[in-house]
UniProtKB/TrEMBL annotation:
GO terms for molecular function: iron ion binding; iron-sulfur cluster binding. CDD domains: IscU_like (cd06664). GO terms for biological process: iron-sulfur cluster assembly. This is Iron-sulfur cluster assembly scaffold protein. Residues 8-102 form the NIF system FeS cluster assembly NifU N-terminal domain. The lineage of its organism: Bacteria, Pseudomonadati, Planctomycetota, Planctomycetia, Pirellulales.
Length: 123
């Protein structure tokens, strides 16, 4: 997928936008610098992330990146997701300006916080 193809595809046809009845974990993050707000609901079965659903309010990059994230990380194990860095995630998205990178990272940071929070509760 080209650098902008994912952006256009996911902004026009968001993947797993909405809510699920019984998420295992939830989380949300609001931007401190703009009106972007992302919310994630995650269903985990053992070590595997079965489903990720989202609601996002904000710019096209914010909304497209959270949709892309849901599609990208579903089916992976928690350890596989935890091993991903912000740099890894941005490389998947392609070339973005620094401001757009921050918008795209909002959803990634939200997912990481959810998984870290659930790991802390399990300990």
């Amino acid at each position: 997928m080209s650098d902008l193809e994912w952006l256009l595809t996911h902004s026009r046809h968001p993947y797993h936008r909405g809510s699920i009845e019984q998420p295992c974990q939830t989380g949300d993050i609001a931007s401190r610098t703009c009106a972007d707000r992302v919310s994630l609901q995650v269903v985990v079965d053992g070590p595997v992330i079965q489903q990720i659903w989202h609601n996002a309010v904000g710019c096209m990059v914010c909304q497209a990146s959270i949709s892309y994230l849901c599609e990208m990380f579903e089916g992976l194990t928690i350890d596989e997701v935890q091993s991903q860095t912000e740099v890894d995630y941005l490389e998947e998205l392609g070339t973005l300006t620094p401001l757009r990178q921050q918008r795209a990272l909002q959803s990634f940071r939200c997912l990481k916080q959810i998984l870290e929070s659930s790991a802390t509760k399990a300990s």
